[in-house]
């Protein structure tokens, strides 16, 4: 039996995962996840690609948007190579293209825009009035309570410690889900302080932005990842970074899904700081396909 890692160890491991290695000019390598099994988590690829774009651009330009397409599932057995293309460097904006590769094949293409900070007109949506995170159970606690319903091969993955703590305002039904409105509210943060580097906080938020998003379009249909024959995959992911924030302080993720069809579901997200500022916006379309169970041989 292994010891449960401390929050500080979990946070340090995520920071190390996002600390991509420069192996040549505009060429970076992202290591494998310590606990990854099978398919690479999409948020990891997005965050490492964002780090590659940020590190190829001189300060004080700041990443403000990224648009990514997933082409192939990443494999946790191999590191990921990131190639940066410097498409544009102007006085106010720079644009980068990042190609994520494994074993000679692209798994993700991402465009990222960076801007020299400046003042301008301001307005924003209002943050919803929801329960504070201190009054809510963590998703880890909810998963542990539900783990008795899972056989051993899935229980370890369901209950393993994670570097991002999520506290859902309305907890999901992990087993026997019932149709509900396509709307979720979840608080999240990295589990320990990570210092003051804004680029790192942006990378951590981009990593976490792939959580609790695709599941939103499943809610009206009473399905989730435990449904037999259900297949999901992220197809694209767009993130806009509006304001400064700390990823080690609580952020509220509000997600909704206005449409699903043709085996795809569309999802939107708004991320608020505790003080009510809208700090980021997210969209994602994903594959949601229910396959017929395979017939057993007579």
Task: Provide a quick synopsis of the model.
By secondary structure, the chain is an alpha+beta fold. The protein has a single domain (7-117, 134-290), classed as Porin (Beta Barrel), CATH 2.40.160.210. 18% of the residues lie in helices and 36% in strands.
- As a whole number of angstroms, the C-alpha radius of gyration is 19 Å
The percent of residues in helical segments reads 10-25%
Query: Secondary-structure element sequence?
Result: HEEHEEEEHHEEHEEEE
Please describe the biggest sheet, giving its number of strands, its sense, and whether it closes into a barrel.
12 strands, antiparallel
Strand order of the largest sheet: 1-2-4-5-6-3-9-12-11-10-8-7
Spans where pLDDT lies below 50 across 5 or more residues: none
Which homologous superfamily in CATH is the superfamily?
Acyl-CoA thioesterase, double hotdog domain
Query: What top-tier CATH class fits best?
Result: Mainly Beta
Estimated structural class: alpha+beta
As for the number of domains, it is: 1
Total count of strands:
12
What fraction of residues sit in β-strands? Answer: 35-45%
Shape: globular
Tally of individual helices? 5
Averaged pLDDT: 93
Give the termini distance in whole angstroms: 42 Å
